[in-house]
Specification:
By secondary structure, this protein is an alpha/beta fold. The protein is built from seven helices and ten strands. It has helices at residues 56-63, 89-93, 111-121, 127-140, 156-167, 186-203, 214-219, and strands at residues 18-27, 30-40, 45-50, 71-76, 79-80, 96-100, 174-178, 206-210, 223-228, 231-234.
Length: 247
């Protein structure tokens, strides 16, 4: 019997779903962030901003256990990142929804087949239950009529909505979004931000979003962590952020 290396504090009311204490974040063999302190609660909307190469994506990769946490403390959805075993990582990732800048849809499968692939991979077996859940998430992202479309038949904004539908299939505690609007025009990006904000407000899902677009975090308020000079610290306000530090 597999014993999952998790702790129960993440299921406690008002306890953090993500917590780092004095954590050093690596990219390959190199440390890119020293002494990260970060606590994210259910319902939080958090931005991680900074120039290219300042460690934003490395933090995201650490959260999903793609990068190992070798020093300091890190807990994600009840899992200890310093002791998590390889066989436990899929169980962690079932509690997370991840959205990428480049969508990462399977181009040889329809929208419905893309979503069904994820459900099967995460243990769903009942066909009717899978069909019901796929219908629910497509409706939630405004893509109810696109189930039988192939990804190449969709616009960039539509593909990103499908990627968000995929991310919420298993009702995650956290959605981690790495530059989800980076390849989209301003109007389409605004629609994606409205969708993420709605998921955050209606479902109480915490959102952690990497972005370099200041107009986004000015229009859609949230907590902001700034990566610069091998540190990542929370800004007191969006007005206190040096614009040059986010480009």
């Amino acid at each position: 019997m597999l014993v999952i290396n998790s702790i129960n504090f993440a299921n406690m009311e008002n306890a953090p779903v993500i917590s780092f204490k004095n954590a050093d974040i690596i990219n390959g063999e190199a440390k890119v962030i020293y002494g990260l302190d970060m606590s994210i609660l259910p319902k939080d909307f958090v931005y991680i901003v900074g120039k290219v190469g300042t460690g934003k994506t490395s933090i995201i990769r650490t959260m999903i256990a793609e990068n190992k946490l070798e020093s300091g403390e890190g807990h994600i959805c009840g899992f200890d990142l310093t002791t998590i075993k390889e066989k436990e990582i899929p169980y962690l990732r079932r509690k997370l929804g991840v959205v990428f800048q480049d969508f990462q849809l399977l181009m040889d499968r329809s929208v419905e087949e893309n979503l069904k692939f994820v459900l099967k991979a995460t243990g769903w077996k009942d066909k009717e239950e899978m069909d019901r859940r796929i219908s629910e998430v497509l409706e939630a992202v405004g893509m109810s009529t696109k189930a039988h479309k192939m990804p190449h038949q969709l616009s960039g904004g539509e593909q990103q909505r499908i990627a968000i539908a995929r991310a919420i299939l298993n009702q995650p505690e956290v959605i981690i979004a790495d530059e989800p609007t980076g390849n989209l025009d301003n109007e389409t990006a605004d629609g994606i931000m409205q969708l993420l904000s709605s998921i955050n407000e209606k479902n109480g899902t915490a959102i952690v979003m990497v972005t370099h677009n200041r107009s986004i975090f000015e229009k859609y308020p949230g907590r902001i962590f700034v990566c610069e000079n091998e540190k990542c610290t929370e800004a007191a306000s969006k007005e206190s952020i040096d614009l040059a530090a986010t480009i």
